[in-house]
Amino acid sequence: MTLSLYNTLSRKKEPLTPLDPKNVRMYVCGPTVYDRPHIGNARSVVVYDVLYRLLAHVYGKDCVTYVRNITDVDDKINAAAKQNNEPISALTSRVEGWFHDDMKALNCLDPNREPHATAHIAQMIAMIEKLIAHGNAYVSQGHALFAVDSYKNYGELSGRKLDELVAGARVEVEAYKKHPGDFVLWKPADAGDDPSSVFDSPWGKGRPGWHIECSAMSGEYLGENFDIHGGGADLMFPHHENEIAQSRCASPGSQFARTWVHNGFLTVNGEKMSKSLGNFITVKDLLDKGVKGEVIRLALLMTKYNEPLDWSEKLLNDAKKMLDGWYRELKNWGIEELKKKNDFPISSIPHFLNSLLDDLNLPKAISLMHSASPQELHAMGNLLGLLQQPPESWFKGDGGGDGDIQAQIDARIAAKKAKNWAEADRIRKALAGAGILLEDRPDGTTDWRRA
Ligand code: AMP
Ligand code: ZN
């Protein structure tokens, strides 16, 4: 059972050969907690959640360490807290709570560790000190900066060349930079900054740059060399390029992450969904509209993970229809059988497993679910974080009012018995108007589900 992944660094699909199969290590860039996650952010989380589940399946649950950070110190956070006129800690803890709630609604598992940047400032400072001592960084006007021309492989991940960076520097280069591509490791605090975003350092009071946060936290929990580093395609340059430069230069001879995985953008009308463009839909917006988390999850998984996914209403409708069909099969199969559920070995559905092992080919894996037996379906869903709720709760939801609905159904049955078809029809329509669909059974009973 070998997992192959497309490695952005080598530009090839490669079999994963973990440094230690008893501890397969993955780091994924987590959220900057200043606003509610949108579905583009969710795509990244859901994709790596499936990869995590697959790694756990292949190597064993206790043999995988998945680290996803929380960026809780950042210029965007300072700006948002100022705009809301609230302390930074109030903003970051609220948004982190939202992030957790929304990702749980999408059936995402918790990572093994979720380090906060603000709790790892000492490790960041130690790393910057090493970079300065090694001649890879310098201090200028209260900033510590990484000198990109001190690292000869700079640009290896993204394929960008240093001279292109010079030519591409559109804005005037800050006076404290020796090279336009140099990036900030530490920046000085501004007067009036919230004290909780200001930290002491050998270079004065300030805060770390974003890139050094991930280098320090991955190093702390996964070591100098680890197996997989993931994130969205937008992070390849400069964020991941800079992580590589910092981490390798701080620990000469280290490789840092061996396999680099990048999920594609979620787009709207071909344009990347982002906060700055204002074309975003939050996970919460959809949940509040009554879209089930599982529907959003499947919609995010139906496109190859590293290709662009253009978001549409149709995508959600397709996902909903698929799940309705699968849950119907599970329902017809019977709840007692379902209770025996997870003892069905996924190894007995090799074509399904093999498509996932082949660079996470989810569209293929999902297409195989259409011809699966209920038992297979349940096991497949278990690996993908789908189809694990009782069919009853899928169809009826936990919207409450079930007693009232049953009373209406009983009234309709009575009306039908009395041949009062108009009344029976009225009740059916009234229920449909409230999103309750009735299904008459051949044995005379009536079942219902939420639309
Ligand atoms: P941020 O909070 O903006 O730093 O993003 C958190 C994660 O979401 C990163 O891994 C980003 O690459 C990812 N991400 C942001 N926008 C999108 C998008 N439109 N499509 C896919 N991934 C995204
Ligand atoms: Zn990162």
Question: How would you explain this protein's 3D organization?
Answer:
- Helix 4 crosses helix 6 (210-222) and helix 4 crosses helix 7.
- The strands form five sheets. Strands 4-3-9-10 form a four-stranded parallel β-sheet, with helices on both faces. The protein has a four-stranded antiparallel β-sheet with strand order 5-6-7-8. Strands 12-11-13 form a three-stranded mixed β-sheet, with helices on one face.
- By secondary structure, the chain is of the alpha/beta class.
- The chain is elongated, with a radius of gyration of 26 Å.
- The chain contains 17 helices and 15 strands.
- The chain has three domains: 4-263, Rossmann fold (3-Layer(aba) Sandwich); 267-394, no CATH class; 398-450, no CATH class.
- Helix 1 (39-59) links the parallel strand 3 and strand 4 (64-68).
- The chain binds adenosine monophosphate (AMP) and zinc ion (ZN).
- Residues 29, 31-32, 40-41, 43-44, 231-232, 234-235, 263, 265-266, 272-274 line the site of adenosine monophosphate (AMP).
Shape: elongated
- Domain count: the total is 3
Quote the beta fraction. 15-25%
- Count of individual helical segments: 17
Mean pLDDT: 94
Query: Given this structure, which CATH class of the largest domain is correct?
Result: Alpha Beta
The CATH level-2 architecture of the largest domain is identified as 3-Layer(aba) Sandwich
Ligand names: adenosine monophosphate, zinc ion
Instruction: Give the biggest beta sheet.
Output: 4 strands, parallel
Radius of gyration: 26 Å
Which strand order does the major sheet show? 4-3-9-10
Poorly predicted ranges (pLDDT <50, ≥5 residues)?
none
Helix content: 40-55%
- Structural class comes to alpha/beta
Q: Count all strands and give the number.
A: 15
Ends apart, CA distance between termini: 41 Å
CATH superfamily membership of the largest domain, which one? HUPs
Would you tell me which CATH topology of the largest domain applies? Answer: Rossmann fold
